[in-house]
């Protein structure tokens, strides 16, 4: 049973977390390089929010939006 848990430890510590260890080492030489993943996530989230807002405006322009408070049963 001990070998099973040591195998899980090896998988996570030595294999799956290796990219994070590399980013941690990169931070000492390049802050922007270490935070590229964060910047990438911010760009993706910003694009998703812009798309979502455009879709909301499109539905509002077509009068497809139901703003009645009884639109959902849990509001009654």
What letter string, H or E per element, gives the SSE order? HHHH
SS element count, helices: 4
Mean pLDDT: 89
Strand content: under 5%
Uncertain segments:
none
Q: List how many beta strands DSSP finds.
A: 0
Q: How does the overall form come out from the CA principal axes?
A: elongated
Question: How many whole angstroms does the radius of gyration measure?
Answer: 23 Å
Domain count, please report it. 1
CA distance, first residue to last residue = 54 Å
Quickly give the structural class.
Answer: mainly alpha
Could you estimate the helical fraction of the residues in percent?
Answer: over 70%
The major β-sheet equals: none
Protein name: Uracil phosphoribosyltransferase
Transmembrane segments: 31-53
Keywords: Membrane, Transmembrane, Transmembrane helix
InterPro entries: DUF6341
């Amino acid at each position: 049973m001990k070998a099973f848990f040591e195998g899980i430890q090896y998988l996570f510590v030595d294999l799956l977390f290796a990219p994070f260890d590399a980013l941690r080492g990169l931070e000492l030489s390049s802050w922007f390089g270490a935070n590229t993943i964060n910047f990438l996530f911010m760009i993706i989230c910003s694009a998703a929010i812009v798309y979502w807002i455009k879709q909301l405006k499109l539905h509002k322009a077509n009068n497809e939006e139901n703003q009645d408070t009884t639109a959902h049963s849990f509001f009654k």
